[in-house]
Amino acid sequence: MERVSPLSGKFALVTGGSRGIGRGIAVRLAERGAAVAVNFIRDEAAAQQTLRTIQEVGGTGFIVRADVSHPQDVAVMAGRVREEWGKLDIFVNNALGNLHGFLRPPHVLSLEQWDEAFACQSRAFFVLVRELSPLIQEHGRVVALSYWPGSHLGGFQPYFAMGTNKAALEAMCRYYAVTFARRGVTVNAVCAGLTDDSVLNQLPSDAEQAILGWMRSGWTPMGRPGTPADIGGAVAALCGADAAWITGQTIVADGGASLMSPEVPLAFQQS
Question: Which of the residues 10, 147, 159, 176 is marked catalytic?
Answer without folding.
Answer: 159
